[in-house]
């Protein structure tokens, strides 16, 4: 992938004009703003990176993206290199990973610049009102290229290197991608300021520091409702989301289902392979549940080896199909892990007992649905495990 990136760099550099004095001045302004941003947020960034288990959205697009619009490709990539050298001291990642992600940032900037210049943009300082609409469209296209290169270059490798890739682990969450879009948008504003009012770029340096802090706060809020072992919602987060979903269903006069999934003989895994292997099984099951559910479904970890799924707009038949899909998916998992001595091992043939309760048939509130689904799980266990059991209809 890095060899292919060299080809992309070569094409972009060969087509780039030789930087002149104004280019170097704009480069210096962006470099100063980026350096101020990085140095003033070092501790915040360290904390963000230490808490992140999947994709980390780097907020330096505020400085890199404008470089793709106003600078030659050579200077845009040079700015990326300057930023990444400073990031090395907060990244705390293996060198090969850091170099790879740095190449991804540089390649995205180079190819986005190549795309932008190929569309024959106008000189912003002489632009008319009608021309500004066209330029705005070109900026949107360039932003799409900038993001797409990083998604393909980094996301593709993450998908290939994962035993059970999901959209969240490869591309990040919705919040992550919204953060990336906002950061790129701020980068477009920075580009305008660099050309029209260079001193005002200092304001963007302040904005990025505040924005970095808001991103950390958002991450902390997310951590409060997230289970650290599986990345799913914890009981607090699941209950909050489930309550909102239930209220919507109640207003719409529709139905929903709650599935409680209890892994069979989970203690045997911990006793035989060790607790790290048990954690690997929990993570694999969580990933499997995310892959076989809909975006509107609420998936969480109840505790121990139990998981909860809330399925909006699901009647009894739909709930049964979903529960069987979950059961067969878990039974088919082959989970790479290690044994107590650290040797490679594969855990397979594990099963789950699933209890199902539906609204309003089995209960009319969340606590009642959970109680009904829990009782159904015990019935499934007593009937031989590895099966789906529906709650009894209250008399």
How does this model look, in words?
InterPro entries: Diguanylate_Cyclase, GGDEF_dom, Nucleotide_cyclase, Rev_trsase/Diguanyl_cyclase. One of its GO terms (cellular component) is plasma membrane. This is Diguanylate cyclase (GGDEF) domain-containing protein. GO terms for molecular function: diguanylate cyclase activity. One of its GO terms (biological process) is cell adhesion involved in single-species biofilm formation. The protein is built from 15 helices and 7 strands. By secondary structure, it is of the alpha+beta class. It folds into 2 domains: 223 residues, no CATH class; 156 residues, 2-Layer Sandwich (Alpha-Beta Plaits), CATH 3.30.70.270. The strands form 2 sheets. The protein has a 5-stranded mixed sheet, sandwiched between helices. Strand 2 and strand 3 form a beta hairpin. The longest helix is centred in the middle third of the chain and has 33 residues. The mean pLDDT is 87. 65% of the residues lie in helices and 11% in strands.
Defining traits:
single chain, 395 residues, Alpha-Beta Plaits, five-stranded mixed beta sheet, two-stranded antiparallel ribbon, 11% strand, elongated
Summarize this, please?
The chain crosses the membrane at residues 61-85, 97-116, 136-161, 181-211. Keywords: Membrane, Transmembrane, Transmembrane helix. This protein is α+β, with helices and mostly antiparallel strands.
């Amino acid at each position: 992938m890095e060899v292919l990136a060299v080809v992309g760099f070569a094409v972009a550099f060969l087509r780039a004009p030789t930087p002149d004095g104004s280019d170097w001045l704009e480069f210096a302004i962006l470099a100063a703003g980026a350096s101020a941003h990085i140095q003033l947020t070092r501790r915040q960034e360290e904390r963000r990176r230490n808490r992140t288990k999947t994709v980390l959205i780097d907020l330096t697009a505020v400085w890199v993206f404008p470089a793709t619009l106003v600078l030659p490709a050579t200077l845009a990539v040079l700015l990326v290199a300057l930023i990444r050298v400073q990031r090395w001291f907060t990244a705390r990642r293996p060198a090969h990973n850091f170099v790879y992600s740095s190449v991804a940032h540089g390649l995205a900037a180079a190819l986005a610049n190549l795309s932008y210049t190929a569309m024959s943009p106008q000189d912003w300082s002489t632009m008319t009102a009608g021309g500004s609409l066209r330029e705005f469209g070109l900026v949107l296209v360039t932003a799409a290229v900038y993001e797409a290169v990083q998604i393909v270059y980094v996301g593709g490798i993450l998908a290939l290197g994962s035993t059970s890739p999901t959209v969240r682990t490869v591309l990040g969450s919705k919040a992550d991608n919204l953060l990336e879009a906002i950061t790129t948008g701020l980068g477009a504003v920075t580009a305008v300021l660099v050309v029209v009012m260079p001193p005002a770029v200092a304001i963007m340096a302040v904005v990025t520091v505040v924005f970095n802090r808001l991103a950390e706060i958002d991450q902390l809020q997310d951590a409060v409702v997230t289970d650290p072992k599986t990345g799913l919602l914890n009981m607090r987060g699941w209950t909050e989301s489930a309550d909102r979903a239930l209220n919507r269903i109640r207003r719409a006069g529709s139905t929903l289902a709650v599935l409680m999934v209890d892994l069979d003989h989970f203690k045997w895994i911990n006793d035989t392979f060790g607790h790290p292997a048990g954690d690997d099984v929990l993570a694999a099951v969580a990933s499997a549940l995310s892959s076989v559910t809909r975006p509107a479904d609420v998936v969480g970890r109840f505790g121990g080896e139990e998981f909860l799924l809330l399925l909006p707009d699901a009647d009894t038949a739909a709930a049964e199909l979903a529960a069987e899909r979950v059961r067969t998916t878990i039974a088919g998992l082959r989970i790479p892990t290690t044994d107590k001595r650290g040797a490679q091992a594969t855990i397979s043939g594990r099963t789950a007992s699933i209890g199902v309760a539906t609204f309003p048939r089995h209960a009319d509130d969340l606590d009642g649905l959970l109680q009904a689904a829990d009782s159904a799980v015990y019935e499934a266990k007593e009937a031989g495990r590895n099966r789906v059991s529906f709650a009894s209809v209250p008399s």
